[in-house]
Specification:
Elements: E1 3-8, H1 13-24, E2 31-38, E3 41-48, H2 51-57, E4 67-73, E5 88-89, E6 95-100, H3 106-115, H4 126-139, H5 148-157, E7 164-170, E8 177-182, E9 187-190, E10 195-198, E11 210-212, E12 218-223, E13 226-231, E14 236-237, E15 242-243, H6 248-251, H7 259-265, H8 267-275, E16 279-280, E17 285-286, H9 295-300, E18 303-308, H10 310-327, E19 331-335, H11 336-339, E20 350-356, H12 362-373, E21 377-382, H13 388-392, E22 395-398, H14 411-431, H15 435-446, H16 448-456, H17 459-468, E23 474-479, H18 484-498, E24 501-506, E25 523-528, H19 534-546, E26 550-556, E27 568-572, H20 581-598
Parallel strand pairs: 18-19, 18-20, 20-21, 21-22, 23-24, 23-25, 25-26, 26-27
Antiparallel strand pairs: 1-4, 1-10, 2-3, 2-4, 5-6, 6-7, 7-8, 8-12, 9-10, 9-11, 11-15, 12-13, 13-14, 16-17
Bound molecules: 5-amino-5-deoxy-1-O-phosphono-D-mannitol.
Length: 616
């Protein structure tokens, strides 16, 4: 959570920082601030609220101010107000810092720094960083042959336990910008006589597509003459400049009112890109280059554990069904937040697969580290290239879904399920199913993008259904088999952006308690597509209808039988049950989107949430 951006170059920094912060605003949006460094003077402006609120208190940009840092916050330590907003200046007035992450030992360090005379003004953990750097800068001697600012940063960071992506300025070094990283994302964009540090590439691509990705415990020192990277022990690191693989167009709204809607509508394309070149029907192969050297181990594995959070967890649940069905491998899906604190039994032959859009989710990353420590092979299914999880896992498969900006995850879910489907087919082909069956699966999977396009045409119809039920504050989402995780996902989507209470359940569980919730007119969304459990779910629909529930059904096109039960009907094209989740989730994404808009909520920036949860 939180977004940081920093600029050093020849252009006026303020508008570049503001634009960058707007592109990072999905990472946090409760307060924001900027610090400019000019002629040895640090000028800070910060406020509670969003980037628009920050803009209102800024002075006109000064052309000669070409170095600065900015921050958009998702509060952890200290309520969102202008004092707790970043940047944070140290007690000597020389060091200013923006930070994304959490400093775990901040309380101990704060007490110690206070005993040394440092003054604190905020409730944040970040102020410990600026004060610690300021303390070493003021009291230390530095190291021979090294600039003292760089030395003080390295020295201070050795004392810090926790995660950080940092951009730091010092008033005595008006031409220097320092970045540092541990556990939180940080990218350095390398342009033509200009540099941008940022939490993610979205803030950089407008200026350059050349970037380096510093590793944990590295400090990058940038001046107009160039940059160098060192470890905290001052060992020089050789960096390779990489190309940022997405374009500005991909992160702009275009003609869509919200990123979430844009991303829902992008799914035919994002899935085609995700699967393109990987499904090789002619040779009856799925090509997953990233894990090629682990396929043998995976084929022989005795057990697979998916670990993930939120929507990615729901994708993992679909994966569990797919792996058991097609590959006959015992599979479990674990919340990363639970897995990391359990004492999981990872016998020889267990493979752990982490699923994450951002690749930065703190719990998922910790679960990966825990599994690695216990000697398991850990693979990743990740969207963001070069992210922490992508780099920490032994190998992985990228989603190639393109950047997902909307806080509510949509196209990442379908891409995660597509990747899991491809992997399950390939393992199935090697272990359990016939070549013919595998080819049939590949053909069906390849048809999914076009089928999604057809569902998207019902967006206005789904909006009407949302409108007809918009005054209801409790909804149920019910599905069975492969569509049970979709019910969970439908409920999560509605909750997080519409703030409507919703429960997702395996439909048969309803009788064991939740049926007591049903009152006249309560919306119950059933995923009742054709498949082995169709008759069973019809029974569940009848039970809810008999108690006055409002029945919203996602059914298979051409199912006339279901019409008599449904108050509202949405259809999806026919598909094998194993691939239905990529279709049945689409109407639920649209339902949540339209409900949120109808309720007047900020769809892309739901309250209390941020796109990637980089804190526990
Ligand atoms: O980036 P990740 O996939 O690791 O994120 C996991 C969850 O935080 C994420 O899916 C969250 O639940 C979304 N807001 C759901 O829409």
């Amino acid at each position: 959570m939180c977004g940081i951006v920093a600029y050093l170059g020849k252009k006026t920094a303020q508008p570049i920082l503001i634009e960058g912060l707007k592109r990072l605003e999905y990472r946090g949006y409760d307060s924001a601030g900027l610090a400019m460094l000019s002629g040895g003077i640090i000028k800070i402006k910060k406020t509670k609220g969003r980037i628009n609120d920050l803009e209102k208190i800024l002075d006109k940009p000064i052309e000669s101010e070409t170095i600065g840092i900015g921050h958009t916050r998702w509060a952890t330590h200290g309520e969102p107000n202008s004092v707790n907003a970043h940047p944070h200046l140290d007690y000597t007035g020389k060091i200013v810092v923006v930070h994304n992450g959490i400093i775990e030992n901040y309380s101990t360090l704060k007490t110690w720094l206070q005993s040394e005379g440092a003054k604190f003004v905020s409730d944040t953990d970040t102020e410990v960083i600026s004060n610690l750097i300021g303390y070493f800068y003021a009291t230390g001697n530095g190291a021979a042959g090294q600039n003292k600012f760089e030395w003080a940063v390295q020295r201070a960071l050795k004392e810090i336990h926790g995660t950080y992506g940092l951009a730091i300025l010092c008033s005595d070094f008006p031409d220097t910008l320092i970045g540092a990283k541990n556990g939180s994302p940080l990218i350095l964009g390398v342009g033509d006589s200009e540099y941008l540090l940022a939490s993610d590439a979205a803030a950089i691509v407008e200026h350059t597509t050349q970037a380096i990705y510093p590793a944990n415990n590295e400090v990058v020192v940038i001046t107009a003459a160039g940059f160098h990277t060192k470890t905290l022990d001052n060992v020089t690191v050789t960096e390779t400049i990489k190309k940022i693989e997405f374009s500005l167009e991909q992160i702009e709204l275009g003609s869509f009112p919200h990123h979430m809607l844009k991303e829902i509508f992008e799914q035919p394309k994002s899935l085609s890109t995700c699967m393109g070149g990987r499904i090789d029907i002619q040779n009856n192969r799925i090509k997953l280059g990233g894990i090629a050297s682990y396929l043998r181990e995976l084929t022989r594995t005795r057990r697979i554990i998916f670990t993930a959070c939120g929507t990615a967890f729901h994708a993992g649940l679909v994966g569990e069904f797919l792996f058991e069905h097609l590959a006959r491998i015992p599979t479990e899906t674990e919340y990363a937040s639970e897995f990391r604190y359990r004492n999981p039994i990872l016998e020889d032959g267990t493979v752990v697969i982490a699923i994450s859009q951002s690749g930065e989710t703190a719990d998922t990353l910790a679960a990966v580290e825990q599994a690695k420590e216990r000697g398991a092979t850990v693979l990743g299914i990740v969207n963001v290239v070069g992210s922490s999880i992508a780099r920490t896992t032994d190998a992985g498969i990228y989603l190639h879904a393109g950047p997902e900006i909307g806080v509510a995850s949509t196209k990442a879910f379908t891409a995660q399920v597509a990747v899991l489907s491809m992997l399950a087919i390939e393992l199935g082909r090697r272990r359990h199913i016939s070549s013919f069956h595998a080819t049939e699966c590949m053909k069906e999977l390849a048809k999914i993008p076009d089928k999604i396009s057809r569902i998207l045409q019902q967006s206005d119809h789904i909006k009407q259904i949302a409108a007809a039920n918009i005054d209801r504050n409790n909804w149920l989402f019910l599905g069975r088999g492969f569509n049970y995780p979709v019910a969970l996902e439908g409920a999560l989507k509605l909750k997080e952006i519409s703030y409507i209470h919703a429960e997702g359940l395996p439909a048969a569980e309803m009788k064991h308690g939740p049926i007591a919730l049903i009152v006249d007119g309560m919306p119950a969304v059933f995923i009742a597509t054709e498949g082995p459990q169709y008759d069973k779910i019809m029974g569940n629909i009848a039970e809810v209808k008999a108690r006055g529930g409002k029945i919203i059904v996602v059914a298979t096109e051409g199912d006339n039988n279901i019409k008599k039960y449904a108050d509202h009907l949405i259809t999806v094209p026919d598909a094998p049950e194993i691939f239905q989740p990529m279709l049945t989730v689409i109407p639920l994404q649209l339902m949540a989107y339209h409900a949120a808009v109808l309720r007047g909520h900020d769809v892309d920036k739901p309250r209390n949430l941020a796109k990637s949860v980089t804190v526990e």
